[in-house]
Amino acid sequence: MTAFDEAALDQAFAQVEGQAREEAAAIASDEAVEAYRLRWLGRKQGRLNDVSGRWLKAAPPEAKKALGLRFNALKTAVEGLLDTAKGAGPSDAALAAEAIDISLPGTRRLTGAEHPITKTLNEIVSVFAGLGYSVGVGPEVETDYYNFECMNFPPGHPARDTQDTLVIAGQDRKPQRDRLLLRTHTSPVQMRTMEMQPPPVRIVIPGKVHRNDAADATHSPIFHQVEGLCVDTNITFSDLKGTLDYAMKALFGSSVKTRFFPSFFPFTEPSADVQISCIFCGGKGCRKCKQSGWIELLGCGMVDPAVFAFAAEKQPAYDSKKISGFAFGLGVERIAMMKYGISEIGQFFAGDMRFLGQFA
Ligand code: DAH
Predict the structure, then answer these.
(1) Whose CA is nearest to atom 5 of ligand 1?
(2) Which residues pair with 300 in a beta bridge?
(3) Nearest Cα to 271, choosing from 246, 306, 247, 295?
(4) What's residue 21's pLDDT?
(5) Strand, coil or helix: 77
(6) Please, is 316 exposed, middle or buried when counting C-beta atoms within 10 Å of its C-beta (0-12, 13-18, 19+)?
(7) CA-330 nearest atom, ligand 1
């Protein structure tokens, strides 16, 4: 700087301030704010220090006052620019890039709900839990021994044909009793339970089972059962009837009646099929009950002494001279179909949300 008249001072200071403004406008990060501060206000190398040092020194005494005033104004301006830059945060461009449209509707998370089969299964279990039954589980991949042999289906017995299933490949070298298959019923857990504990036993066993059944409106190769087993001294067929009659009323309403027909299961003797009065027509006769007024619902019977004999191999207390018991097996899908008026069993497994959403 050579001239120190008012006009020259104005021009010189305006130029420096213009530069300070330009640089401040380009600040886009916290690091840039700090760099700006050092560059302009730094004690040793800052531009303002430089200006005050060099210009003030060079100015003739009569110009020093005018120069000092302008210098103070410049300093205030730069400090203001710095303050603005500090508070400014991200640049307009950065803000625009991460802008969200708050007028868009949010993402709605669907609330989970129990599958109708799980719901029905829990309902059945809780009816028996109320009678003092506990809950047991067993493996879905079961041995031939537990699924069939100890349930009194000897190898080659024709009753096995009614429960064909998938067997695990490559087990030819194992003895037949150890070969693995997908269980066809939850009855094997009767034996697994008895082997683990002496009588008394009161247990319900919910679970998935598999059968080589052609799929149709009421059959699915995968379905669910709830097995029941009660063993104690002096358990009679009356106990069985009373228990199941109570359970059917608890599940379908107190006006439901039950009746028992002779049947056959290898693991019970005598065995029975249980019918309930038609819940759709109240017993008058309709299409659902084929005009009979009754619907067949489950199998049951008194535990066969041959089954106790298998249990006694591990737990001698299962001596059929001293104890007796009853067992029953319920199809969960069948009960759910009746309760909810569903006519296609496949709906339970198709995963169609329009169907499942009705149970949420
Ligand atoms: N396990 C039989 C089935 O899958 C159902 C059954 C019937 C179970 C009678 C029982 C019973 O415990 O006593 O067809």
Answers:
(1) 329
(2) 272, 328
(3) 306
(4) 87
(5) helix
(6) exposed
(7) 5
Instruction: State the distance from the centre of ligand 1 to the C-alpha of 330, rounded, in angstroms.
Output: 7
Q: Beta strand 294-303 with 324-331: parallel, antiparallel or unpaired?
A: antiparallel
**What are residue 247's phi and psi, to 5 degrees?**
-65, -40
CA 85 to CA 29: how far, in whole Å?
Answer: 9
Measured from CB, residues less than 6 Å from any atom of ligand 1 are: 185, 187, 227, 265, 268, 299-301, 327-329
Q: 3-class DSSP state for residue 120?
A: helix
Look at 283 and 87; give whichever has higher pLDDT: 283
- Tell me the C-alpha distance between 83 and 195, whole Å: 81
Decide: residue 54, CB within 10 A, 0-12 exposed, 13-18 middle, 19+ buried.
exposed
What is the distance in A from the centroid of ligand 1 to the CA of 265? Answer: 7
- Indicate the helix (H) or strand (E) that contains 272: strand 268-277
Rounded-to-10 torsion of CA 178, 179, 182, 186 = -30
Q: Residue 89's pLDDT is what?
A: 64
Cα→Cα distances 214→28, 76, 347, Å: 70, 90, 16
Over residues 170-194, mean pLDDT: 97
Q: Can you tell me whether residue 313 is helix, strand or coil? A: coil
For residues 268 and 260, what is the distance between their CA atoms, to the nearest angstrom?
14
Please, which residues have CB within 8 angstroms of residue 108's CB and are 6 or more apart in sequence? none
Specify the amino acid at residue 336.
A
Exposed/middle/buried for 330, CB within 10 Å: 0-12, 13-18, 19+?
buried
- Alpha carbons within 13 A on the beta-carbon side of 293: 7
- Relative to the CA of 184, which ligand 1 atom is closest? 4
